[in-house]
Design a protein that fits this description.
Layout lengths: L3 H7 L4 H11 L11 H5 L4 E2 L4 E2 L5 H5 L4 E5 L2 H15 L21 E4 L2 E5 L5
Parallel strand pairs: 3-5
Antiparallel strand pairs: 1-2, 4-5
């Protein structure tokens, strides 16, 4: 049976190996090369579990300013947390609007955005 130190040693690479691995897994700009060539042919990125997509939503506009992601239990708890954060940072929702579950049509998660904070429910049924 291999020890942890023996396993650790098997993953050591020299600079030449590291460069070869990088060339196989990264583009020159640093982005990751996808192994499934069909993904590169897709005209949009669909985030099924969140009921969002790059064609139907401007994801950069929606989430580009996010600095904190807070994940918790039940949808109600995370909605309450979003309201709490709103008070703590003094965030004002425009008149006539209300805090909305961004991924309400996913039926899997709840996702609230309050300024630079995402409040996400990750409760799972087993």
């Amino acid at each position: 049976m291999a020890t942890c130190s023996a396993l650790r040693g098997s993953f050591e690479t020299n600079d030449e190996d590291a460069e070869q691995i990088r060339a196989l897994t990264r583009y020159p700009d640093g982005s990751v090369k996808l192994r499934n060539p069909n993904i590169e042919l897709m005209d949009q990125d669909i985030l099924y579990h969140l009921a969002l997509g790059s064609e139907s939503h401007d994801l950069v506009e929606m989430f580009g300013d996010v600095k904190f992601v807070c994940m918790g239990g039940t949808p109600k708890r995370m909605e309450d947390f979003a309201h709490y954060i709103m008070q703590e940072i003094g965030y004002k929702i425009p008149t006539g609007t209300k805090l909305m579950d961004i991924s309400q049509y996913s039926y899997r998660y709840c996702l609230y955005k309050v300024g630079p904070v995402l409040s996400v429910s990750v409760s799972f049924d087993i």
